[in-house]
Amino acid sequence: MEDFITFFSFQDPNIRYVVAGSILIAVSSAIVGCFTFLKKKALVGDAVAHSVLPGICLSFILTGTKNPIYIIIGAFVTGWISLILIDYITRFSKIKEDTAIGLILSVFFGIGVLLLTMIQHNGNASQTGLDSFLFGKAAALVGYDLLIFSIISIILLLAVILFFKEFTLISFDENFAKSIGFPVKRLELVLTTLTVLAVVTGIQAVGVVLMAAMLITPSAAAKFWTNKLNIMLILAAVFAAFSSISGAFISFTSPSMPTGPWIVMVISIIALTSFFFAPRHGILYNIIKQRSIKKRILHENILKLFYQLGERENDFNASRSIDNILEKRTIKLGALKPGLRHLTKQGFLSKNKNFWTLTTEGKTKGQRIVKLHRLWEVYLTKYLRIAPDHVHEDADNIEHFLTPELEKRLENLLNYPESDPHSSAIPYDQITS
Amino acid sequence: MIVNVENPVLEIHDLTVTYSRKPVLWGVDLTLPKGSLVGIIGPNGAGKSTLIKAAMDLIPKSSGWVEIFGEDLKKVRKKISYVPQRESVDWDFPASVRDVVVMGRYADIGLFKRPRKADYEAADYALKQVKLSEFSNRQISQLSGGQQQRVFLARALAQQADLYFMDEPFAGVDAATEKAIINILKQMSEQGKTVVVVHHDLQTVTKYFDWLVQLNTRLVASGPIEQVFTQELLQETYGGKLTLLSDVSTLMHTQQLPVRDKT
Amino acid sequence: MDTLYIISTGAIVAITCGVLGCYLILKKMAMVGDAISHAVLPGIVIAFLLSGSRDSVTMLLGAGILGVLTTFLIEFFHTKGSLQSDASIGVTFTWLFALGVILISMYAGDVDLDQDCVLHGEIAYVPLDLWILPNGSIMGPRTLYISGFVLILVLLFVIIGYKELYITTFDPAFASAIGISTVLWHYLLMGAVSLTTVASFESVGAILVVSLLIAPPATAYLLTENFKKMLWLTAFTGMLVSILGYYLAVWIDGSIAGAMSSVAGLFFLLALIFSPSEGIIAKKLRQQKLQPNNS
After folding, report:
1. Do A268 and C91 touch (CB under 8 A)?
2. Which of A263, B111, B176, C158 lies 20 to 30 A from C267 at CA?
3. CATH number of B10-254
């Protein structure tokens, strides 16, 4: 708790800078990542992330220092080379893209590991701190390094704002962008450069191995909440910022914990939560929705049964027991009882002891379902040429979904037929509009 | 116009297929007679390939059932063969022409066993039928489009099935190949085998087929070619979608509504 | 003797990975292999914590199951969550890998694994960890036996299921049409890949396994158009990679696994340039032949 207060009061200027810096880095990766995500190049980002490792090691071997500028240049160069190679291999040989990505990713990383172990065995690995590029060390990001990476992040953000319209267009519809005279090739080049830069800075926070998560996961999570690009960008940025603060906090309280994996863990939890719980797109949301549709269908079916029973006996006001209902159609008791209770509460049925009667509202509703059922059967036989004995099941389903607008159109299209293919009369409202 | 037959080779009942809950085939009821050469036509996106894939149970059905030779599909799989669209596989795959054609025998060979001499002979005979004998050891990547299509046909022939489903076997082949293929199909049909072909060229329909199925999300027509290849039915097939039906399917997709209520 | 142990372990791992990699690259699922190799990490750590040692069958099984679960999760997010497949792969494996690294840090005292081991394995220590029978006789390095066992399993799998794997890889639709279950063979293959990555993990680490899964098959793919030859060539390349990788590592004093994947990459590059049928030079020459006088 004490840690919590010290950390989040941001009194310590060191903490302040580290937090600000890592947020900037995470946010810029996430925002550039949104476009990578939309262009379905998520795994290419992964390849770039792994491929910067040999560049980092080489620039250390060549210059002997860990100056961030040299490191960035080295990383940038091998990152770009990996992209060019992937493109070349897929274009000029029968090797497919996924193989090319996996190949370049693992081989470049292998070369990086070879160089890294070589440097380590030469004895000065501890001073270099090069292995912090493997899993990230946001907390160690201070002074000059922090300044450089923050500047790059700000450049990235500004570039995205500047090219927002153009990037949006090439991410959604490249061909259209081409057709209206956008310099698509050059814009792609800019976007790719930004991606490489985002990777180069992002690895400061999470390291090369998990960098892919900083590009992909925030946008994947954000995509579940919205269909609008600008909101998606903002959400991805917020998710990334939150996970990066959490990561910084964790590495502040327990320095032995790897920062990068924790940041990735937090952002992944956000993403998993979104997959399951986000409205409209979430998996759980859909399950709940399917259940509520099922319930609605059940309720409408009960009212339909009451109406059909009334039709048969020519008495819509008769009271009926559960046995009466089950006689016409089998519904599971476990579903029927709560269904009856719900309909009574809603005022579609009235209950007296163990008997239920249709109210006026209930009758109207039941009648509408019966009407839609029969109208749809007419439609299927007339327009889809389906045999009259085959239309019942489909109508049993569609009757629940037709909106009032579709209902009107159906009535007009069929011109208010009197009866369905089985010669049952179609009940229209007494007061037709 | 939907003509039904007694003792059909293929019977499809109330078949609805959806992609992410949007119906792409709606309530198809269909029977096909034995020994016929059947063409399936319809505009793009009408569900032609979907129909044959669903008939073979390669994609899930939202409703309905299929019977082949009066039995459940599982019992008669070996008697059915399939020629997928040519682009559905990667022709850079390391395989020779003969390797691919022998695949037609795999169903008969059974699990864990290797192809035997008789299987290779059947493959070679099938290659002879499609006039590719001299290409037997050629790598499939070195074939022309027409030759690739004939390799697929040979594979199906090697299977010695009784019912064949072919997805656009004439797409992207030269005129000579097309002629060669249709001659083979006609021979097969004379031998009492049933061949169902997804087709898109209206010019050749009357020359090629004796039974025609017209689709546009729903079944418009199915029957002997002289009865159903009419101006009126073609207009209905190609004259656009039923707006009400497509609006209902859009509604089912956007609202994620189920195709069958199972309470 | 130590050299021989290291090289033979490396070769066995490379051959096992390569054989399965042939199917992966032809199924266009190389990145799923990458994802599995990362995602088995938490399985390894958990199995380690539960069993307290590295060599139990529990570990192979536990992590193997996690590998298959990864494929299932990727599939699940893709179909049920309508997440595009590349993002589904990326999200799933980074999450599980992060979990593995965190677990290692949390139980650093209890787990004889460190981040270096995760990244590039400890093939150099193979000769140190010997399998000693209760009666005291030394049987040789334990890892050698484990990888040898997995190699035999994998070879049996591809020999027995040769026909089924071949057809479901080339034309899954046709395979299902004639009654061969693509789903079953897909998950069997993914199970084999998971088992192999777990068994190779100690030797070459989670990430460099990927280069052995992909690079030798990709090299062989450029050199032949016959699938059986491709398998043989892959195995042969894998062996060469192990030998040359070892000596490269010794020469420049670096990680053996890193050197192995560098050599694997080099072989691919050579095949890309010099392959008689697919190489850049061969293609250039063929083009020139087609248009002899271009003037």
Report:
1. yes
2. C158
3. 3.40.50.300
